[in-house]
Amino acid sequence: MTNSQNGERGDAVSLCGIIDEKTHRLIARVYFADTDFSGAVYHGRYLEFLERGRSDFLRCIGVHHSDLLNNDEGALFWVVRRMELDFKASASIDDILQIETQLTFVGGARCMMSQKILRGDDVLIEAEVTAALINNEGKPRRFPQNWKESFGALVVSDSD
């Protein structure tokens, strides 16, 4: 992946992960703040790891949250409309995790993503997420055409 393809700004190219064969991969370390009193990752923190995966997936294809706030059509926002999680195993402090994100559907103003959090080959979390684009009045906003083109090239189908 070239720097221009990943949509990253500045020198921190590797911070947003990579897209390889329609799958975005982001590496994250588990820190003390991610864990509960037992030393395992607190269940709510997995939502934050998944959010980083989705945000950096968008960043890799050139969709930046800061641009959404400052555009000609008024502020736009990504919202999670639905999320289904399957907790399979837990992570612990200092574990290196990989967050994988794939687009499975793109509509006019919403998309669906399949996500996984892995430690090595072990799948810890599986998630199905429906996200939508809204304006500052909370009304759905259609994806810009250039986004639909970028998204369309990355949608994973059953035949992939």
Keywords:
160 residues, 4 helices, 36% strand, single chain, globular, alpha+beta, 6-stranded antiparallel sheet
Present the secondary structure layout.
Blueprint: H1 3-6, E1 18-20, E2 23-29, H2 43-60, H3 65-69, E3 76-87, E4 96-106, E5 110-119, E6 122-135, H4 145-152
Antiparallel strand pairs: 1-2, 2-4, 3-6, 4-5, 5-6
Can you walk through the features of this model?
This protein is of the alpha+beta class. It is 22% helix and 36% strand. It contains four helices and six strands, in the order αββααββββα. The protein has a six-stranded antiparallel β-sheet. It is globular, with a radius of gyration of 16 Å. Residues 1-12 have low confidence and may be disordered.
User: In percent terms, what proportion of residues is strand?
Assistant: 35-45%
Q: Residue-averaged pLDDT, rounded?
A: 88
Q: What is the topology, as strand order, of the major beta sheet? A: 1-2-4-5-6-3
Q: Which structural class best describes the helix and strand composition?
A: alpha+beta
Topology pattern, helix = H, strand = E: HEEHHEEEEH
The largest sheet, given as strand count, sense and whether it forms a barrel, is: 6 strands, antiparallel
Intertermini distance: 20 Å
Number of separate helices: 4
Please give the share of residues in helix. Answer: 10-25%
